[in-house]
Amino acid sequence: MTTESDPSYPAHWEADVVLRDGGTARIRPITAEDAGRLVSFYEQVSDESKYYRFFAPYPRLSDRDVHRFTHHDHVDRVGLAATIGGEFIATVRFDRIGPDGRPASAPADEAEVAFLVQDAHQGRGVASALLEHIGAVARERGIRRFAAEVLPANSKMIKVFTDVGYQQKRSFEDGAVRLTLDLEPTAESLAVQRAREQRAEARSVQRLLAPGSVAVIGVSRSGGGVGAAALRNLRDTGFHGHLYAVNEAASDDLLDGVRAYRAVADIGAPVDLAVVAVPADRVPDAVRACGEHGVQGLVVLSAGYGESGPAGLQRQRELVRQVRSYGMRLIGPNAFGVINTAPDVELNASLAPTPASARGRIGLFTQSGAIGIALLSGLLRRGEGLSSFVSAGNRADVSGNDILQYWYDDDSTDVALMYLETLGNPRKFTRLARRTAAVKPVVVARGGRHTPAGHVVPGTRLPESTVSELLRQAGVIRVDTVTELVDVGLLLAGQPLPAGPRVAILGNSESLGVLTYDACLTRGLRPLPPLDLTTAATPRDFRTALADALASPDCDAVVVTAIPWVGENAPADDLASALRDAVAEHPGKPVAVVHVELGALAEALSTAAGTVAPRPANATTPTTPAAPVAGIPAPATPAAPTTPVAGIPVTQTPPPGAPRQADTPSTGHPTTGPGTAGEGRIPAYPAAERAVRAVAEAVRYAQWRRSLADAGQVPEYEDIDEAGAATQIAALLTGPADSAITLDEADAITLLARYGIRVLPTLPAPDAGAAVRAARALGYPVALKTTAPHLRHRADLGGVRLALTTETELRRAYDELTEALGKPAELLPVVQAMVPRGVDTVVRSVIDPTAGAVLSFGLAGVPSELLGDTAHRLVPATDRDAAALIRSIRAAPLLFGWRGSDPVDTPALEELLLRLSRLVHDHPEVIGVSLEPVVVATEGLSVLSATVRVARPPVRTDLGPRTLPSY
User: Fold this and answer.
1) Most exposed residue of 321, 472, 848, 936, measured as fewest CB within 10 angstroms of its CB?
2) Does the predicted model carry a pTM greater than 0.70?
3) What residues does 80 pair with on adjacent strands?
């Protein structure tokens, strides 16, 4: 729709949504131009549904009805429609009413709401999605409650209202059920919304990865080109569904052994997935044909879109709009394809031939086809297969977020590997990653710090280091290269999680053992002294030593080092068997092998093992407490209780290519950790640093899993004046909607005080006499400092004079300051009372448009500004977050009595962080706060300066109603 004919048309209410069955629909306001669509829609609704809507037989809409239902002021009367292919499939409207139930205008804050869903689309979750969106619209227009009257027999609509999670009242009046819903979002309504989002988006990906039929559009008759390659891979992999080839010039019944058609419309059967491999200028015709045939999803291999420049980017946006208009989802364009190795699917709709042994327990998502090839090759070469693979190309529609939704409850995937070039929406990604990481590892490699061409999802303004830290807080295992992605993935897929950081090292090379020991210390592990078996060690010696190490209560993981034998060589198969036997005898601890010039050993270890003993029930939730960092005491929080995970049954691994027992989907929620498949495979690495990096990441991830048992809480403070802060902010924001303002000192101090944050006041000193009067008012000793922007927080430039105890000292300091740095009008000097000495810190919060509010902490001056020693947490922060935040910077020992100094009042610092977190979380208008310096003494702290910026609440794309990104 356009706004040219109706300037009041609220275009920002338009949204694409994923429905319960995985299809999509577009939600938009109803306008006067929709009269014909409304009549056509109503004619397709059953008499029963019409009766439920109007409480009486209502076979057709009168002209007056049509006018009423298509003319809205978008304030007191609002109508939304869900459309597919441009036609209505459902409508919802509200009319504002007063206390007497009659039509009203603001400030009345209640509205009557009513739905009508076409019978063919009932059960798809259309009404639930419409209720989320109409509720958001109502809140925007000042409406706080919905009232609805529903016939008792209309159980489906009653369920829509009762299941939404809002606080509600229910009564029975005049033969109808009257429901009143409070539209203020609750924890329950948000949980309901996100659960529906997860099911819908997971289902939409499942339809792409497990189709019953596939058509490849653009298969050349010569057998060359992208389309023909995709068709051959589908055919040769043994896809279990129906396979069709489409070529408009096809003259034979078969192309490359597959039934061929001139057009999708000629296929006399449903098509679930279409692989499009035609030139970009012909893709719109292919999409139209697929949409009209009822295809559910597309994989567009064609290039010439966003990666080719502005014209291609515009073509890409049009492609997404066209695809979604038919209710389909899209992987690509410029995609490499998708693979699903499930034994009942065996789909390879990609450009990479996969061997029969490619089935495994790792899910892989990439945005780059080239990186996808490298990762596939690396995993297969080292003996690990895949459960699923998606290379999304330009990621115009289906993204890594969608794939995480699918992997979350995919029983075939134990470990998720992701190569990402942009995050797009870090807020949503971290939320989904955190939930997924709670049940299976998520390993991410970032490919770049800037948004590449073709990726139209907006990036974040946060520094790369901040994004990485936020990902780690969400449980994401962050690696730097694709090699590390494979290394870490192999360990997690084949081995249990370690119970702690203690690492045993054994092998037949003393030097290699020392290198491994050093690498462990570098990675923060606690290695035991290496055990040198000497170069004369036999496979039996290795087995005995490894069994002893695994049986010992003094280690949590083992790294085995091996170099070639001198003289007569022991077969690599014998050593591999010896190591596997030791692991089978003492399961429950991860083992990694470092080999030097022993490629045969790595190959032998990567082959499938024989009988594997079950993993102990506590393998994924070890209880050994994490060791504190030197010089920093651990937060005073209780140890996380254990949550046992079901053991893994003994299985006989079948030969490559045959289905495995673990590939059979199980029922229930995924609760097992990594290592449930391929647990006989011991990962081998050609360098000690690579093996230790993988072990260290597993240790850190296991510690994060343990911490989930006690995630902390957001504390309540009785002295917080949330309502007063809201009133003050509203009074301050009276200017243009898109303008941000920096509060003056008085307003900033007042606002922060409402949340219990006291800022030490300053008094202006435009001349020496004013400085003296200010000092008398505050009481000696005082500080004299400049507040000019170029000198602010720059004590190194001489703009601060401390501990002035007399008027004489103050006047002398004032004269020295102005003589050295400039006139008072330039320096803007102020006088402030002295505070107890302590450690100068800086506390900040900033709003990123995609990541949301981020809380930051560091030491003031060189550590944070020059060395970047700053830690971050997402808001709202819990008490555990605050405690961890101040302990996670490298300079943290300065807060805890470094070199005999007195420890400072860290509980007071934690409380300050929590209060600031509450402020920015409760009031999204607060877009930036800087408290610098915050002097933390042995008892208490003092905030010497504060800067606060406010603006209209930014769009928070992850907290509104469900919607797909719009381009």
Assistant:
1) 321
2) yes
3) 29, 92
